[in-house]
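User: I'm preparing a small set of examples for a lab meeting where we compare how different chains pack in three dimensions. I only have the primary sequence for this one, and I'd like the structure in token form so I can line it up with the others. Please keep the answer compact; I'll paste it straight into my notes.
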Amino acid sequence: MFEELQKINERPAPFEFYTASDLWTDEHTSAQMLSFHLNGAIDLASRNVEFINRSVEWIASRFSIDMNTTIADFGCGPGLYATRLAKLGARVTGIDFSERSIEYAKGLAAREQLNINYVKQNYLDFETEDRFSLVIMIMCDFCALSPAQRKRLLSTFLRILKPGGSVILDGYSLSAFDQRQEVATYGLNLLNGFWSPDKYYVFLNTFKYDREKVVLDKYTIIEADRTRTVYNWLQYFTPERLEKEFIEAGFSVEGFYSDVAGTTYDRKSDEFAVVATRP
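Assistant: Understood. Below is the structure token output for the 279-residue chain.
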């Protein structure tokens, strides 16, 4: 038991393990995540509906969205952005590895009579001959990726964008990093049954990596018939660091905002958005 507790409370190296699929493809948790996506009153899996509407309005204005615009939505979820952008005339491709979210998005597109191309795939593996005017990646998905994964993804963005095409994505700031604290929590059915429909126990260890500006929420979930560990990594950025990654990938950075609704940039904001362009 002592050795098991030591393992549970062990601090891994930054991004040593990658378990995103456990969260988004598990039968139970994917249903939980979809319900969070579709709850327009909260900011959890997706932004609240009022923010999404403002965000789409700004994106449409900022990038002159019309019937000639082609958009790739990385981490599209149930199509909250893709649907709205398609209604504005854009030709949209949505990529997500949650089958439950993709099936919902396809059903929504059919009901709305929208021609959206949805791809069920890990966006790190996405390949296409299509070329896009705009790539979007919203809800700080970029922060969940390791440096190597981010480099790989930016290379994909550069390859699939048309010359002069743009990327917009958001991330967490150092202001948000400073608010995180290391904690160790134990509980029965932690997060109100999020992890399983059956009885379970959870050890939650939150680790901060000050040098790398990374936070890990490590969930060890113990059920009657299995024990699993889910690693939720988050990278926190300064604008300078994020710009460096884009420049090294071959982009030029056009500007920073406090969010993907075009709010004027404030360094104290917990999140910020970047717009970068392929030469």
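A couple of notes for your slides: The first strand starts at residue 70 and ends at 74. The first helix runs from residue 2 to 8.

User: Perfect, thanks.
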